[in-house]
Amino acid sequence: MALKWPNDVLHGGAKLVGILLESTNLPDGHLACVAGFGVNCRLHPGDTPYKATDLTAIAARPVPPEIVFEQLSAAMAHWLDIWAEGAGFEAVRTEWLSLAAGLGTWISVSRPSQTIEGVFRTIDANGRLILEQASGHVAVEAGDVFLVQPGSKAARL
């Protein structure tokens, strides 16, 4: 299992889960955030720009959605406790980096205005991906990451 910045869970290099966060400022000044999870339980799309998989294919048997929901709920509660409204972000970041897909390798990040490439070095204290390029480090706040397959492009740095 690996995490692909900013919001995918991979199994064997294939996308298994997508995570979406939406936030808004409330009239009272508080920030509200909603997290959504899409887990490929029984099927997965075949027409994506990257490989995908599902729990049934991984387990070689159907995995009941109720079990997925129970496990996901327990894990979410656990990590929200550790995060502690941001006070525990460093612990979350450390664990996230231990599972990061593509860390230390050449990646491509597609953004609305451009695609950038470089070596994925870390995520910073704000959760931004830090990409190393010949000209220096670039902090990426949003984008679609594509992991470069081994042998398809040599790291240039």
Keywords:
alpha+beta, single chain, SH3 type barrels, 3 helices, five-stranded antiparallel sheet, four-stranded antiparallel sheet, 157 residues, 2 domains, BirA Bifunctional Protein, domain 2, 9 strands, disordered C terminus
The fraction of residues in strands falls at 35-45%
Write down the secondary-structure element order. Answer: EEEEHHHEEEEE
Q: What is the correct CATH architecture of the largest domain?
A: 2-Layer Sandwich
CATH top level of the largest domain is Alpha Beta
Number of strand segments: 9
Envelope shape: globular
Domain unit count: 2
Mean pLDDT: 92
Characterise this structure.
The chain is of the alpha+beta class. The chain folds into two domains: 2-98, 2-Layer Sandwich (BirA Bifunctional Protein, domain 2), CATH 3.30.930; 106-147, SH3 type barrels (Roll). 22% of the residues lie in helices and 36% in strands. It contains three helices and nine strands. It has helices at residues 55-59, 65-83, 89-98, and strands spanning 2-4, 8-11, 14-25, 31-39, 106-110, 115-123, 129-133, 136-140, 144-147. The strands form two sheets. Strands 8-7-6-5-9 form a five-stranded antiparallel beta sheet, with no helix packed on it. Strands 1-2-3-4 form a four-stranded antiparallel beta sheet, with no helix packed on it.
